[in-house]
Amino acid sequence: MSQTKPTLSRRTLVATGAGAGALLAAQAVPSRGQNGTAKTEATIRTGNDITTLVNVFTVEPANQQKLVQLLKEGTEAFFSKQPGFISSSVHASTEGERAINYSQWRSAKDIEAFRKDPRFSPYVQSLAALSKAETILCEVVEVNHA
């Protein structure tokens, strides 16, 4: 009997940590559509039809996996069910001191809306108990393909 492996996204983010020169390797988290059934894949392209939210977390190595699990659970239980959600990817640095959440939304207004949800504040407090975060709202300005 053959065993099938899950297919990872065709894109893997490898970035250099600011100032630390840390190589980051991706750990894929499956994305789901708003109805929870249809998978959607992150699409990185220029233009203003998608808003990108990047959260960079600095964490003690002993807490990195707890943080990654919390990010996965938050995506599954809360963010993936919010209007305007497209996709979310969680990345864990190989040195254990960072985690990155790369998410895509239909608009900045959708991001503003989920931040007003009463469930958001307790979730952010649980993240803050494990890490320090930097949140960056982005527009994709360049994409290169092999």
Structure in words:
Helix 1 packs antiparallel against helix 3. It is built from 3 helices and 5 strands. Strand 3 and strand 4 form a beta hairpin. It has a 5-stranded antiparallel beta sheet. It has 146 residues and is an alpha+beta fold. Mean pLDDT is 79; it is low at 1-35. 23% of the residues lie in helices and 25% in strands.
CA distance, first residue to last residue: 35 Å
Gyration radius from CA atoms, angstroms: 15 Å
Percentage beta strand? 25-35%
Q: Give the biggest sheet.
A: 5 strands, antiparallel
Number of helices: 3
Question: What is the share of helical residues?
Answer: 10-25%
Task: Look at the structure and give the mean pLDDT.
Answer: 79
Strand order of the largest sheet: 1-3-4-2-5
Low-confidence stretches: 1-35
In sequence order, what are the helices and strands, one letter per element? EEHEEHHE
**Strands, count:** 5
Give the overall shape: globular
